[in-house]
Structures are given as structure tokens and as C-alpha cells.
Write a structure and sequence with these properties.
The radius of gyration is 19 Å and the shape is globular. The longest helix has 11 residues. The protein folds into two domains: 145 residues, Glucose Permease (Domain IIA), CATH 2.70.70; 154 residues, no CATH class. The chain is built from four helices and 27 strands. The chain has an eight-stranded antiparallel sheet, with no helix packed on it. The protein starts with 10 loop residues before the first strand and ends with a strand. The N terminus is likely disordered. The relative contact order is 0.16.
């Protein structure tokens, strides 16, 4: 079967929820599952970026009207204590955008691709995070994460993913080309499909492996897997499926019920732990690195966490080893 990548002009139709259609412009980075924040775990939030530089322009992913702009406190830390939330009304829904210095005002009508402001590095960010806006959709004008609505990826986005990543053959290494070397991260482009297998079914791993909370999102490329199915990636068993939804599943490194895992994972003590991945090691050219983040992007879809002696154009090999 052949899947066609559809990219209309400079826009890709990514997510639909309620009355809201979410697009990205070319040069995008997308992540649904790179955070322990509850809406990400529940498939109700997406992080979108078009730059690796803070203070760069933020382009609107939706058409809507600005109805509220809030400044909020992001806590103590090395970055900005201020963060901002911009609410846009889209027919019967409200879209909540965070992590930008807004340059729009209440009453402004914006369209996909319009500049909303500039990317902001607040204390919600870790040292390796790329600039991004956090997007949730709610039926009411609220800050409460429990009110966000489940996201649904579009057929257009799924075709893009299938065209880029679909494979039933799992390599034991991922070949990468270094695209950019930043402070705390190295951005790479995959040269072979980033595909994991769950009982023979291809899925795309999404999120951070080797550092932080021990879960990954798995975007389905065909049928849905089963609860507690083993997940194999680059020749190693990463863990088990603990939650299954229409377009994604969640992987944990331990075999446990989702409710118990969620309560444990979202505890403050676990959120402060550097890594809960146990025996999982990420190797680049045979040397251990802090971790790796898997993104969806038309620029660079693999991000190494940490600083290493690599340069743009370098071809490297990434492996995952389970020592348990």
C-alpha cells in the first residue's frame, strides 16, 4: 500500500477537536507526549513549534478571535518567572495557548500563519526543551486542565505519518543526520523509519526516552494494540502498553494498570526525579547519552538530550539497550 504525503502549500492539517481545526506551517515540530503534564498523558494537548530559537515568531495554528490574555507565574528557576496564556474563541470552543509573549490583544481576529507573539522560555521548561506553544481545546473559558477535550489526529496528518514512517521491519539502529547543535540539545533528522512494533503492529514512538517520566506515546499506523502488549524498538523491549485509545497508546517501562501508574507518575516526588526509565540506556555511536526525544517534524524528528561533540552534517547511529 502506498501512502501519499499531503502538504497543502505551507500548511498541514494536524488535529481536529470540536469546532477547532489545528494546522502547522512548514518547518514544524510537533509533540503530543513529551511532558508529564496531565493533558499530554491523556491525549488532550499538543506542543507545536516552528523554531529552535526562543524569541522567534509564533505562528497561529488556528483561525479564531482573541478573547483573553493572562500573565501567570511559572515558579522559581533559571528562566522567566512570567508565562502567558492566550485564549482564542473558535465558534463554540476555546483554544488555550501557552509559552509565548503575546503581541495580540483581545478582539483581534487571527488566521493560520499569523504572528501571535514570540516564543518564551519560562520556568515550566527544562534545559533541553525546544521553544513551543502548548495547545489545549476546552468547551469553556477555563485554565483547568481537567476541562480540556480529547484531541483527534486528522486523516491528512495520519497519511503524512504513514508516508514518512510506515514500516513493519524494525532496525536495530536508527541512522541520524545532525541538523543543528543547540544549548542542551542536538537536533537530528532520521534516515530510516522511527518505527516500533507492538505485536507486529507498527507505531510511532513519541516523547522522551531515557530521561524523565517513564512513558512514551505510540501513534497507531494501522490497527490498535492490546493492553500489556510488549513494545519492541530498535531490537530492545521498551515496556508494555498500559492505555489504548483510538489513535494512540501509552507505553510504560513497567507492567501496571493505567490508574495506578497515573497516580504514581503524577506525584510530585516522581515529577522531580531525573529519570524513571530503570535499565533503559540510549547510545549514540556506542556512547551513552542522557536521553532522546522523538518528535514529528519536517525538519528534525529526533532530539538528543545534552551537549555532545557533534556537528551539523555528522551521520550517527542511535541504539536503545534494555539491561534488565
Amino acid at each position: 500500500m502506498t501512502y501519499i504525503i499531503v502538504l497543502r502549500g505551507l500548511e498541514l492539517y494536524v488535529v481536529s477537536v470540536g469546532d477547532v481545526d489545528v494546522y502547522v506551517v512548514s518547518g514544524f515540530f510537533i509533540s503530543f507526549f513529551s511532558s508529564p503534564y496531565t493533558p499530554h498523558i491523556l491525549g488532550r494537548a499538543v506542543d507545536i513549534s516552528t523554531s529552535t530559537k526562543f524569541s522567534s515568531d509564533v505562528y497561529s495554528p488556528i483561525d479564531g478571535v482573541v478573547v483573553k490574555v493572562l500573565r501567570i507565574y511559572s515558579g522559581l528557576g533559571p528562566y522567566s518567572e512570567d508565562d502567558y496564556v492566550v485564549f482564542l474563541r473558535v465558534r463554540g470552543c476555546y483554544v488555550k495557548l501557552m509559552h509565548l509573549v503575546p503581541e495580540v490583544r483581545v478582539g483581534d481576529k487571527v488566521y493560520v500563519g499569523d504572528v501571535l507573539g514570540r516564543y518564551l522560555r519560562s520556568n515550566y521548561f527544562s534545559y533541553h526543551h525546544l521553544p513551543h506553544i502548548h495547545l489545549e481545546v476546552c468547551s469553556t473559558l477555563t485554565l483547568r486542565p481537567s476541562r480540556s477535550l480529547p484531541l483527534k489526529i486528522t486523516d491528512e496528518f495520519l497519511n503524512f505519518l504513514r508516508g514518512k514512517y510506515f514500516s513493519r521491519v524494525v532496525s536495530k539502529e536508527l541512522r541520524l543526520e545532525v541538523v543543528e547543535v543547540g544549548d542542551g540539545f542536538i537536533l537530528c533528522r532520521s534516515l530510516n523509519p522511527i518505527t516500533a512494533l507492538v505485536s507486529g503492529l507498527p507505531v510511532i514512538p513519541q516523547g522522551v526516552l531515557g530521561v524523565g517520566v517513564n512513558y512514551l506515546g505510540l501513534i497507531h499506523l494501522s490497527s490498535k494494540p492490546g493492553i500489556y502488549d510488549d513494545v519492541e524498538f530498535l531490537g530492545s523491549r521498551l515496556g508494555y502498553v498500559i492505555r489504548v485509545r483510538d489513535w494512540y497508546s501509552l507505553l510504560s517501562s513497567v507492567r501496571v494498570g493505567f490508574r495506578d501508574w497515573f497516580l504514581s507518575t503524577s506525584s510530585i516526588s516522581n515529577l522531580m526525579v531525573k529519570s524513571l526509565w530503570g535499565g533503559i540506556k540510549v547510545l549514540v555511536n556506542g556512547f551513552r547519552v542522557d536521553g532522546v526525544e522523538f518528535l514529528v517534524s519536517d525538519v528534525g524528528d529526533v532530539k538528543l538530550v545534552g551537549n555532545y561533540d557533534l556537528r551539523p552534517g555528522d551521520i550517527i547511529s542511535l541504539e536503545v539497550v534494555n539491561t534488565t
